[in-house]
Design goal:
about 250 residues; 13-stranded antiparallel beta sheet; 3 helices; globular; disordered N terminus
Length: about 250
């Protein structure tokens, strides 16, 4: 009855269809405009001393996260390149909710693509391309720790309540452990010391072969909310700062 009243009121089905079309367009506009409200985005400047090397960004919409690193101003361009990592929820053949990690890095020296599935800390399947980039740890059966992927690791750091607990990170080629090493809390600033250690698999940045890095996470606390403002990592004379620019 209400439908036919509506038709009579607007005079014809043609007018009704036009109205419905306008309503649909309005709904699409509202939903697509509102979508960023439900996503969490963080942007950081990557710095070596006073030099900005590039940017790091992280976007999380709840079930899916994306990490994007661009280095375009490294000394003589030796480490310039990009990295994009995503972590998303998928369903296994048995209908179990699991996570799929996809990572792609590209530079003037090489391009690498990695994909793996993991569930409750256990790695199910790892694919690395090209095959020459595989390591012993690209065999999931050799990953002994309960791990998260790099995107989930960043999420744990950004969303931490207090200092993060120990995190074991698997990137398809190695396992890295972030372990707490101390903390201080002064008024509105929380400082968390961490140790970054390659615990299994190849070291970082051939030919430097870095395996251990000292780190500091700095959080600002305001109105009961904890915000990551800066990450610092140091190995030997090199000190990298990743500063929140959001």
């Amino acid at each position: 009855m209400a439908f036919w009243y509506f038709v009579r009121h607007f005079g014809s089905n043609r007018l009704l269809l036009q109205l419905i079309t306008h309503i649909n367009r309005l709904l699409v506009l509202i939903l697509t405009s509102a979508w960023p409200i439900f996503a969490t985005a963080q942007s950081f400047d990557v710095m070596l001393g006073a030099r900005t090397l590039g940017t790091l960004s992280y976007i999380d919409d709840g079930n899916n996260g994306t990490l994007h690193l661009t280095l375009d101003n490294t000394p003589i361009g030796v480490f310039d390149g990009t990295f994009v990592g995503t972590s998303r929820e998928v369903r296994s053949d048995q209908g179990i909710p699991i996570r799929q990690y996809l990572g792609e890095s590209a530079s003037s020296r090489k391009t690498r693509w990695i994909s793996f599935l993991h569930h409750q800390g256990q790695v199910w399947d790892t694919v690395v391309s090209p095959l020459s980039e595989r390591t012993d740890l690209s065999d999931p059966s050799l990953v002994s720790e309960l791990v998260v992927d790099p995107v989930l690791a960043i999420k744990e750091i950004i969303s931490a309540n207090g200092c993060p607990e120990t995190i074991h990170i698997y990137d398809g080629r190695r396992v890295v452990t972030l372990a707490p090493a101390g903390m201080s809390n002064e008024e509105s600033l929380l400082t968390c010391d961490i140790d970054y250690t390659v615990t299994d698999g190849p070291r970082h940045l051939s030919p430097l072969y870095i395996s251990q890095i000292s780190g500091v996470l700095r959080y600002e606390i305001s109105n009961g909310r904890q915000t990551l403002t800066q990450m610092e990592f140091q190995s030997g004379p090199f000190k990298l700062r990743i500063k929140n620019s959001s």
